[in-house]
């Protein structure tokens, strides 16, 4: 059941894309697995969709160049059902996904706003969803896509929103975010400490890094701790056997097992990296979104086959759910991102941000993970070059990343009144603060899993963390 649910969830996530892509372009396998990893914090759909209103605000295209007078329309959602004189303003920041009102209609952020008669807002990040400032996503047009511009959008939003609402002129503002938008909460407090009284950052990566090999280590650890040694060994041996087959004249057999299309060239490193990176991302997506019982279920599935390689091949085929053969060519990935110049799709702008600001390439460099060694960070650097410009070589990306860490302080952002939470088994947690630096790390939890209302199904640690942020919010608003 769970696997089917995952697959159908994946399909729901892709459905809106599928509608616009229909008959135009299949999402190639590597991009498909990345979409799973960057789809924003989970949110339940709510029946009371009428409580949030879609609104727009005019923003400068470039906050840092006064001679540029161009503007764009940034979208936000507003839920003012509790609004009264002086209501505090609870803003959930959008990240590299399309904003939708769920997060301000239910869940812990909503519950806290309700307690304080807060106004709820969800801001959409420029270049994602409907907040697209340029006609195309050419490299030249993407020059206005940068976290500093996005943070300036939020600052200007807060000032404008307050000045245009007589009841809220002196209201206090709080921020929340998950994943990259949690990073933005931290960085916003660093750049604009006087505009917000506090923030909640769930699963915020803070350290930019090109070769993010720790990611797959934590992914492996999630399978080991929750699925057991046999499951971990099955993954490790299955992937190793597939690699061995490709390298030792049994490529035809391996391709048949994986049902790969004939155009795939196993003698081309880029194709192999594309394939094995995609396989490992399926496991990452499971680890990143797991709830209790999920990994155990997938492990039962993996262990139900007679041999290691078949288990991995069937798992991949099932998860990808392509009607016929799997096109795992590198060139398909490149072409998809190029297609994104004229066809908006959040994959291209986020990939640009990784080349230009963060890296975070989830590579196979570590030996302390079960996913083989056929997807080095170089794979993504080649992709940056082929998709954007040859200027995005290793040196350029390293220097972009160093700049980001210099601007925002890496693991020492030096901010006050930001509550940071992480899941212990969230592969992203390695790029964020740990317990020693003051973050709360929730045992066995994954990525952004703490946004739901306080519930009887919460672990005691999860509950304690939710109560802690509620307490902090009371202090900040006192
Ligand atoms: C799976 O891998 C392990 C470790 O290499 C090996 O002992 C076992 O025989 C393999 N299973 C099959 C059915 O090939």
From TrEMBL:
A biological-process GO annotation: proteolysis
GO molecular function, one term: dipeptidyl-peptidase activity
Pfam families: Peptidase_S28
Keyword Cell inner membrane listed: no
Signal peptide: 1-20
UniProt keyword annotation of Signal present: yes
InterPro entries xrefs: AB_hydrolase_fold, Peptidase_S28, Ser_carbopepase_S28_SKS
Keyword field: Glycoprotein, Hydrolase, Protease, Signal
Family per similarity comment: Belongs to the peptidase S28 family.
PANTHER family in the record: PROTEASE S28 PRO-X CARBOXYPEPTIDASE-RELATED, RE36938P-RELATED
Name under which the protein is recorded: Serine protease K12H4.7
Species of provenance: Drosophila virilis
């Amino acid at each position: 059941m769970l696997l089917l649910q995952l697959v159908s969830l994946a399909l729901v996530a892709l459905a809106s894309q599928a509608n616009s892509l229909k008959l135009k372009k299949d999402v190639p396998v590597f991009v498909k697995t990345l979409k799973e990893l960057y789809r924003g914090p989970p949110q339940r759909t709510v029946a009371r969709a009428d409580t949030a209103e879609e609104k727009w605000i005019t923003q400068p295209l470039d906050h840092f160049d006064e001679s540029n007078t161009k503007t764009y329309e940034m979208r936000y959602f507003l839920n003012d059902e509790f609004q009264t004189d002086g209501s505090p303003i609870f803003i959930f920041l959008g990240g590299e996904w399309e904003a939708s009102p769920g997060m301000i209609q239910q869940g812990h952020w909503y519950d806290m706003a309700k307690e304080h008669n807060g106004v709820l807002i969800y801001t959409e990040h420029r270049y994602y969803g409907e907040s697209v400032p340029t006609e195309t996503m050419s490299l030249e047009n993407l020059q206005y896509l940068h976290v500093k511009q996005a943070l300036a959008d939020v600052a200007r939003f807060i000032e404008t929103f307050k000045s245009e609402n007589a009841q809220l002129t002196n209201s206090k503002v709080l921020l929340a975010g998950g994943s990259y938008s949690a990073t933005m909460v931290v960085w916003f407090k660093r750049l604009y400490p006087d505009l917000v009284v506090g923030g909640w950052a769930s699963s915020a990566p803070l350290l930019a890094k090109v070769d993010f090999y720790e990611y797959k280590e934590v992914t492996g650890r999630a399978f080991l701790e929750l699925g057991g040694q046999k499951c971990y060994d099955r993954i490790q041996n299955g992937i190793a056997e597939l690699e061995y087959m490709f390298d030792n004249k049994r490529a035809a057999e391996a391709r048949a097992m994986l049902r790969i299309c004939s155009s795939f060239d196993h003698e081309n490193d880029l194709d192999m990296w594309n394939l094995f990176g995609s396989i490992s991302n399926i496991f990452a997506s499971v680890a990143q979104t797991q709830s209790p019982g999920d990994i155990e279920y997938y492990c039962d599935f993996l262990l139900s086959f007679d041999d290691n390689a078949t288990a991995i091949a069937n798992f991949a085929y099932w998860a990808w759910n392509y009607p016929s053969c799997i096109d795992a060519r590198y060139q398909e990935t490149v072409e998809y991102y190029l297609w994104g110049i004229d066809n908006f799709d959040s994959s291209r702008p986020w990939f640009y941000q990784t080349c230009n600001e963060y890296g975070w390439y989830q590579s196979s460099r570590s030996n302390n993970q079960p996913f083989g060694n056929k997807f080095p960070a170089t794979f993504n650097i080649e992709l940056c070059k082929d998709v954007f410009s040859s200027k995005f070589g290793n040196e350029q990306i390293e220097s972009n990343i160093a700049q980001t860490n210099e601007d925002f302080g890496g693991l020492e952002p030096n901010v006050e009144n930001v509550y940071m939470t992480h899941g212990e088994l969230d592969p992203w947690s390695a790029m964020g603060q740990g317990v020693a630096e003051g973050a709360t790390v929730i045992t066995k939890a994954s990525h952004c899993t703490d946004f739901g209302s306080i519930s009887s199904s919460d672990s005691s640690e999860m509950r304690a963390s939710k109560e802690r942020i509620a307490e902090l919010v009371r202090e900040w608003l006192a």
